[in-house]
Amino acid sequence: MATLEELAQAVLDGDETQVVELTKSLMDSGVDPQDIINKGLLAGMDKVGELFKNNEMFVPEVLMSADALKAGMNLVLKDSKQGQVTPKGTVVIGTVEGDLHDIGKNLVGMMLESNGFKVHDLGADVKAEKFIEAVKEYQPDIVGMSALLTTTMVNMKTTIDALAAAGVRDKVKVIIGGAPITQKFADEIGADGYSPDAASAVELCRRLLGK
Q: Which of 49, 72, 129, 151 is the most buried (most CB within 10 A)?
């Protein structure tokens, strides 16, 4: 019989075919769907996050693991009894106004989704007003902002101030990241957290939500 440990390893290996086979086998054996997700699929992705953070895994491998995880997750979620898996939290992300860089932001979104968060990606060059609209529409737990240019970093503060002016700042945690961003800058502009990379962003979101 397939084991949850084997499933976690298949996710780590980025072996989509193996993930699908093991997931089906575990489901057929009557293993709790939530255990398949948490102790199998997400446990494997946790390890991916650790290795990525330590530069022992790189973006192409992370993407393969994420695809493998999604394939397994889709199988479990299709099962009628498990149609309502509660997400760990809802996150709105976007690259701030004036900045078109989105690789880092996309990776953060992918890692969050792979770890059980619901993600609404607003894209790049996102104006403060769009962040405000998204907070009102999606009612997220966290807003994540990215910037890769020192010239666009200031728009993070502009957005935080705009969220406050709109009366929604206290409804969300705000996290920021990107090459020029530091913890000091996050503290200065009143963000709730800063993350240097995608794996740390997942840890930060979990910590902020007490997950």
A: 72
